[in-house]
Amino acid sequence: MSYKIVSLQAARSLLIGFAILALQLPALAQRPSATEDQVKAAFLLNFAKLGEWPRQALPVGPSPLVIGVNGGDEEFLNVLKVVVAGKVSRTHPLMVKPVSSDEDMKSCHIVFFRASEKRRTQNNLQDLAQAGVLLVGEEPSFLRRGGMINLVREHGSVRFEVNSELLDLSKIHFSSKILALAKAFEGSPPTASTSPVEGERRLESSAPPGYPAIAQQMKLTGTVRVQARVKPNGTVTEVTVLGGHPLLAAALADAVRQWRYQPAPEETLEVVKFSFGPQ
């Protein structure tokens, strides 16, 4: 099973829109910031609103789009119900229910497997994928066991990883720009149409990335790594995210696209790291 790295293209407005959706959470208990359960519930809401299911799984019309939760406690289920209450994906009202059996899960369009629920084998998950169910998890081995999207906690924030092969198998479609928000798997090679050499070219001109206002509101910090494809004349033609929070990565990628390196005999790949913190 291979996992596809998705390059981050120029999609700042989409990234900000995605982050704003994640912030549209009910102020449970009047807490000053969203809880991890609320953030994960917001991700599930976004997947429901932004995914396109095959007609046989979700016919056109007013039928509900069902999000099932497998395992865990009632608290998360209640948080998710509050987050999706009154929400609609195109013509489909969103509905939440607990699920345990395979038959229950096949009646859903999304199933979220809590970390406490690890009994599912890869064959079980593949059967659900072929039935057009989006499989979302939250534990390290979930994608290797046959999951499609995994929510991971890193540097105090929640991000997501994608198993592109199983998404293709399910025929559930997300825009490539949405998938570009996914965390790249460490150690996987970046996609490239040619074979530029890796180098450390000097910069002729550069400006640091701005710290997005919404990132400050979300108190996002951490180090971002991107890889720049640099032409012999020193201009940057492509930027690929290697790691870091998607919103922060977007800011760095936008900045690096404007940088200029010293000329060189051939095209190179340059890795850029930048640490974001409170200003």
Number of structurally distinct domains:
2
- Specify Rg, calculated over alpha carbons: 20 Å
How many angstroms does the end-to-end distance come to?
42 Å
Portion of residues in helices?
25-40%
Overall CATH class of the largest domain: Alpha Beta
So what's the overall shape? Answer: elongated
Describe the sheet with the most strands. 7 strands, mixed
Q: Give the strand content.
A: 15-25%
Task: Report strand order across the widest sheet.
Answer: 2-3-1-4-5-6-7
> What is the CATH-assigned architecture of the largest domain?
3-Layer(aba) Sandwich
Task: Output the structural class.
Answer: alpha/beta
Q: State the order of secondary-structure elements, H for helix, E for strand.
A: HHEHEEHEHEEEHHEEHEEHEE
Mean pLDDT: 77
Determine the CATH topology of the largest domain.
Rossmann fold
Uncertain runs are 1-32, 184-197
Quaternary organization: single chain
